[in-house]
Design goal:
13 strands, two-stranded antiparallel ribbon, alpha+beta, single chain, 3-stranded antiparallel sheet, binds zinc ion
Length: 294
């Protein structure tokens, strides 16, 4: 009988829960393969342990301050982890929280509404005073609208050219930039670039092709819905769009139902999606820690 099977799952679980050993260290200690440890960890929905011992912070505020570095112009740079879409995230215990939301709460002393991102023009800035939530941006936009009449949205040719050079199809570029695929086709022809062959896209690309950016950083699902839930069929497999998106941001399995925490119905922006664990963390831990300080 292989050595693998003589080690009980409980032993692996116990060491994973202790949280002070890497997968490799657990594998070595128990004499099992690292993929075995990883598969048990994923089944439990535990985060991947880092190299060596990850720092433990007493509060989310400490976890935030450890990675927030003041820069010129009042901006604050984030040296902590980021999602695939570059959103700064605070790692606290077993969860990842948006650094924007945490910084906003610390500066304004209240929970943000909707989506939070910097409005100072410095991408990724986590200075509390540079962050705005949805009602703040709406107020600014309304003031601007009252002052000027807005013309039609014009997509610069350079943006289309950039995506053409990345090898996307006319349809994809049309969707991504909210412009007519025919215009993309004309620019492609003028540049002498080949048309993109239809092929089976990787799961993430297939998912992205069915989304369209909306104002305020939300992402609309343009694919199909089943009983009100955005769904994706890819290479014969059925997925919910939320579950696929959750995997882009988190290195653990989701717990319970996933839905957008931004309040925009059916928004599939990966960083807006919350599972039961995140909702509990946000509603209990964040409120109790910062609520008492506010
Ligand atoms: Zn800034
Ligand atoms: Zn959203």
């Amino acid at each position: 009988m292989p050595r693998q099977l003589s080690v009980s799952r409980e032993e692996i679980v116990a060491l994973l829960r202790a949280g002070n050993l890497t997968e490799s260290a657990i594998a070595e200690q128990l004499g099992v393969s690292r993929p075995t440890v990883a598969s048990v960890r994923k089944t439990l929905g535990l985060p991947a342990p880092g190299k060596g011992k990850a720092p433990e912070y007493a509060t989310i505020e400490d976890a935030f301050r450890a990675h927030a570095v003041p820069a010129d112009g009042g901006h604050v740079e984030w040296t902590g982890v980021r999602t695939g879409s570059d959103a700064p995230m605070v790692r606290y215990r077993r969860d990842s929280l948006s650094a924007y939301r945490v910084a906003f709460r610390l500066h304004h002393g209240r929970d943000p509404e909707g989506v939070v991102h910097p409005t100072c023009g410095q991408p990724g800035c986590v200075a509390g005073a540079h962050l705005a939530d949805t009602p703040m941006r709406q107020a600014t936009a309304q003031a601007a609208k009252a002052a000027t009449r807005r013309g039609p949205v014009w997509v610069p040719r350079a943006e289309i050219v950039a995506l053409l050079r990345e090898g996307h199809s006319n349809r994809y570029i049309g969707r991504a930039l909210n412009t007519a695929p025919r215009r993309v086709g004309r620019i492609r022809a003028a540049l002498g670039l080949p048309t993109v062959e239809l092929r089976v896209l990787p799961l993430e690309e297939a998912w992205r092709a069915r989304t369209r950016p909306e104002g305020d950083g939300h992402l609309q699902w343009t694919g199909t819905y089943k009983e009100g839930t955005p769904v994706l069929t890819h290479a014969g497999q059925h997925y919910t769009a939320y579950r696929v998106a959750f995997g882009f941001v988190h290195d653990r399995e989701p717990v319970g139902r996933i839905y957008p925490g931004c309040g925009v119905a059916r928004c599939v922006e990966p960083t807006h999606l919350e599972d039961r664990t995140i909702r509990q963390t946000l509603s209990t831990q964040l409120t109790s820690i910062f609520g008492s300080a506010a």
